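hey so u asked for the seq, here:
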Amino acid sequence: MVLAERIAAVRAGSGEPAELVGELRRTAVLVPVVEDGFMSAVFGGVRWVYAFTDEEALARFALARGAAPDEAWDFVAVLGARLLDVVVPACDGPAGVAVDVADEEASMLFPPVAGIVPDAVAVDVDEDGRRVASDAGAVR
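ran it, structure tokens below
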């Protein structure tokens, strides 16, 4: 099953969040590139790295951000596992991945919690490696 289909299944209540995370890890997603790295934004104290399931989803995002219809955006294909295991830990502070954010009914957030990002940067893991209570513990 492709990532967009797994997102739709989880949003509909019929998919498994753990399988969705696995699908992201196995999938090459498109990540817009800006001068200083990958495009991201901070919201709710978390840096969200933008990722897209295909060029059409990226184009909808570009248009929503005010790009001209024929404006080219630089992007790279990055394996989801690399985003979660390398890019997120390299960010200053908590970070996660926001997939297809221009598509209200097809977007998904992968927050910085255990089971999604490495425990060392998960906001719900304490210094001793134990999970702590968190309201950010689910794929959204």
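Residues 3-121 form one domain. The mean pLDDT is 91.
lmk if thats what u needed
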